[in-house]
Q: What sequence folds into this?
């Protein structure tokens, strides 16, 4: 699947919830805005 | 990360294919630093669906290095989840994706030997694989770890 941007979720809970049963891992990026 | 790494087409494709990603602003939400036990950004953490951490990376990484990191994360989590055949397949992929990465390629070979051993149950797979780490990357940290 190729898209033009990463489909970031807004919260960790959302990402964790969506990962259930998908076989996909959760990726968390902690960032400071510049 | 936001300027170079995440806009990269290969990174976009790799993350969207294999991960459910969340981007968390530590300035707006400082509590996430406590929750994830870090005081630095960027910090990248990979978890399984139970929320168990398999790997983290602190500090900037470029597109190629990020994909290499994430490929290793997938191997490690498959191993932790005892999905050994899957881990071996992912480790073979990681060996390719880390090619030329002085920091991560030896690690990929190291974990491929572990996955091969776990998947087959044959100790020789581990010793042969680790011998290869020592032969190919004699000055690496992973050669030292494999030299038992």
A:
């Amino acid at each position: 699947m190729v898209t033009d941007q990463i489909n970031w979720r807004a919260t960790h809970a959302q990402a964790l919830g969506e990962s259930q049963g998908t076989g996909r891992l959760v990726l968390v990026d902690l960032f400071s805005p510049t | 990360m936001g300027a170079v790494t995440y806009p990269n087409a290969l990174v976009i494709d790799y993350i969207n294919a294999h991960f459910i990603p969340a981007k968390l602003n530590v300035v707006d939400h400082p509590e996430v630093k406590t929750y994830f036990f870090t005081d630095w950004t960027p910090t990248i953490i990979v978890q399984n669906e139970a929320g168990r951490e398999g790997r983290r990376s602190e500090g900037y990484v470029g597109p190629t290095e990020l994909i290499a990191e994430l490929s290793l994360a997938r191997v490690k989590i498959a191993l932790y989840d005892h999905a050994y055949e899957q881990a071996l397949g992912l480790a073979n992929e990681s060996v390719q994706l880390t090619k030329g990465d002085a920091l991560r390629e030896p690690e990929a070979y190291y974990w491929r030997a572990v996955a091969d051993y776990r998947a087959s149950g044959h100790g020789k797979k581990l010793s042969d694989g680790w011998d290869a780490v020592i032969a190919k990357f004699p000055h690496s940290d992973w050669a030292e770890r494999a030299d038992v």
Summary: Chain B has one domain: 9-146. Residues 9-146 of chain B form a domain with the Serine Threonine Protein Phosphatase 5, Tetratricopeptide repeat fold (CATH 1.25.40). The mean pLDDT of chain B is 96. Strands of chain B lie at 19-25, 43-47, 53-58.
